[in-house]
Amino acid sequence: MRGSGASGQIRFGRILESRFKLEWSYHEETRIVTLDGRRIDVLFTIARPEHVDSDAGLVLYGFIDITNSVRTREKLQELQAELTHAARLSVLGELAASIAHEVNHPIGAMAMNGEAGLRWLDRAEPNIAEASDAMRRIVADARRAGDIVARIRDVALRRSPQQISLALNEVIGEALQCVRYELQSKRIRVLLDPAPGLPPVLADKIQLQQVIVNLIINGAQAMATVDDRPRQLVIRSRQDETGQLLVSVQDSGVGINLEHANRLFEAFFTTKSDGMGMGLSICRTIIEGYGGRIWASNNSGPGATFQFSLPSIIRDDRR
Ligand code: ADP
């Protein structure tokens, strides 16, 4: 049998290290080729029974065939990736109205500036300076429209996450841009309360935006039936005493039904007739993937607050 594949070779260096640390057991997952030529995944174990003089050389080696569980795990990961993609597209669907509005703005402005430019040129004595200004505004608006389209393409394309150093407050601002129209049309007021001077986080921008957009849209939906008080979202960023960064989205909606409190983050849990129940579950997968935590509670007044924490890049340097 040869050790190869999935996790590379059997790591003999690690085995020796474990032997010199006097550890009584060692295990690793690897892939081997069996005598009849099949590739199987195995849990390779070494036991050095304590009560036996190990210098006498009694060592038990084990190969446990875990091919099936490894396949199941891979399948689960694939399914999760597909679900994340589907939910991302559903977020995209919810944003469609917003996007149409955002792109319409610069396009309308371009038409107006084009007409104005033509009028300046059509005069008996063309005004080149004014016409150039109109052209410059057209170029700026064309860039704006291009940026919006690029942002949408980033969300829609199935691409692997890219972790970069991010300014959390900027990510919040961009997420808000995506849902601005949606919030306006539902008469929701947004109060932004960003903490100044936050250290950066290491994460994928689109994934973080997706989390924030999900929380905002959920908050907006929780306020859809509220007519006796202001519909208000408060979005805060903070750093806690352990260095973790916190983002909270507080609404003045119907609040969390306590019967459901334990299930909110479960996949497919929804109380909405057209809900998919994937939003919060995906938020949790994303946030926990970065070593953070996400939770929810009812406000002392009406509504609920959803918040998440993320480790900041420089947290460890401060300790
Ligand atoms: P969906 O929005 O498709 O229902 P989510 O996973 O985003 O899926 O949300 C799951 C459930 O959590 C919602 O159906 C709702 O019952 C509850 N929920 C989410 N956000 C809020 C909120 N801001 N206020 C009250 N309940 C909420």
Structure report:
This protein is an alpha+beta fold and 319 residues long. It has 3 domains: 12-65, no CATH class; 79-159, no CATH class; 163-319, Heat Shock Protein 90, CATH 3.30.565.10. Helices cover 45% and strands 20% of the residues. It has helices at 12-20, 67-122, 128-156, 168-185, 205-222, 279-289, 315-318; strands spanning 2-4, 25-33, 39-47, 60-65, 164-166, 189-193, 201-203, 232-239, 245-250, 293-298, 304-310. The strands form 3 sheets. Strands 6-8-9-11-10 form a 5-stranded mixed beta sheet. The site of adenosine-5'-diphosphate (ADP) has 24 residues, from α5, α6 and β11.
In the CATH hierarchy, what is the superfamily of the largest domain?
A: Histidine kinase-like ATPase, C-terminal domain
H-E order: EHEEEHHEHEEHEEHEEH
First-to-last CA distance = 48 Å
Shape by Cα distribution: elongated
Which topology of the largest domain does CATH recognise? Answer: Heat Shock Protein 90
Structural class: alpha+beta
Largest beta-sheet details = 5 strands, mixed
Percentage of β-strand residues: 15-25%
Give the helix proportion (percent range): 40-55%
Number of β-strand runs: 11
Give me a quick take on this structure.
This protein has seven helices and eleven strands. With 319 residues, the protein is α+β, with helices and mostly antiparallel strands.
Descriptive terms for the model:
disordered C terminus, 7 helices, binds adenosine-5'-diphosphate, single chain, disordered N terminus, 3 domains
Task: List the SSEs and their pairings.
Layout: E1 2-4, H1 12-20, E2 25-33, E3 39-47, E4 60-65, H2 67-122, H3 128-156, E5 164-166, H4 168-185, E6 189-193, E7 201-203, H5 205-222, E8 232-239, E9 245-250, H6 279-289, E10 293-298, E11 304-310, H7 315-318
Parallel strand pairs: 6-8
Antiparallel strand pairs: 1-2, 2-3, 3-4, 5-7, 8-9, 9-11, 10-11
Bound molecules: adenosine-5'-diphosphate.
Adenosine-5'-diphosphate binds at residues 214, 218-219, 222, 251, 253-256, 260, 264, 269-272, 275-281, 304, 306.
